[in-house]
Structure formats: structure tokens, C-alpha cells
Write a structure and sequence with these properties.
0% helix; mainly beta; 122 residues; 8-stranded antiparallel β-sheet; 55% strand
């Protein structure tokens, strides 16, 4: 199946520095879910853009054929960690069509906020 697009944009990126609770499931984070419905593995490159510095990336990942993969921006390390308390945007590029969804968990206060949206296909 060739469902999706090869380029996706998320204009709103922000990882809060603080979190409440304990354990990975309650850590404030930005994440993407990438769905690859195709018969070939997808090679993914993500570039981050900032308001006050040069871009970071590319961050490289693989999403196997007919699989989904969840990636937390908090876990990105190579070529550098994603800074917290900093606005950023991301461009996700794949060599085969994929679908990208963006999620943010903000757990800075006990009343958690969860936001999710489909990324913009370009």
C-alpha cells in the first residue's frame, strides 16, 4: 500500500522541562507515531528548526514495512539532544510514503494535558 506522504511538517514543538509523578509514562514529552503501511522499510530523517539557532539533525530512524513506530523527541540524542523549554518545528522526510501523528504530554501540573494532531503533509 502506498498510503501517506514522504514529507510531513510539525510546526509546534515544545518539550516542557518539568513533570509531575514518576515513571516514564508521566514525563512531559513530544512524540510522533509513524505508520508504514508499505511493503518496504521506511528510512526516516527528521530535521528540527528553531527561532534563535541553526537547525539540528538529521535524526535518522527506520520504520519497518507494515509496522508503526513511536518516537519521543526527548529520546533523540544523535546528533544532539532536543532542548527542553525551547520552541522548535520539525520536518519529517521518508523515502516511502508514511503517515505521521504528533502528540504532546504536558505533565507540569497534576491536571495533565495531552494534545495530539495529524502532522501536515507536504
Amino acid at each position: 500500500m502506498n498510503i501517506g506522504h514522504k514529507r510531513w511538517i510539525i510546526a509546534d514543538g515544545y518539550i516542557p522541562a518539568g513533570s509531575t509523578g514518576s515513571g516514564r509514562e508521566l514525563v512531559s514529552h513530544d512524540a510522533i507515531c509513524i505508520l508504514n503501511c508499505g511493503l518496504r522499510d521506511a528510512r526516516i530523517e527528521i530535521t528540527l528548526y528553531f527561532s534563535d539557532r541553526e537547525p539540528a539533525g538529521p535524526y535518522r530512524f527506520t520504520v519497518e514495512a507494515e509496522r508503526t513506530r513511536h518516537l519521543r523527541f526527548n529520546d533523540f540524542a544523535d546528533p544532539e539532544p532536543v532542548p527542553h523549554n525551547t520552541d522548535y518545528a520539525s520536518v519529517i522526510e521518508a523515502d516511502v510514503p508514511v503517515i505521521v501523528q504528533h502528540t504532546r504530554l504536558d505533565s507540569r501540573q497534576p491536571a495533565l494535558a495531552l494534545m495530539t494532531t495529524i502532522a501536515y503533509p507536504a
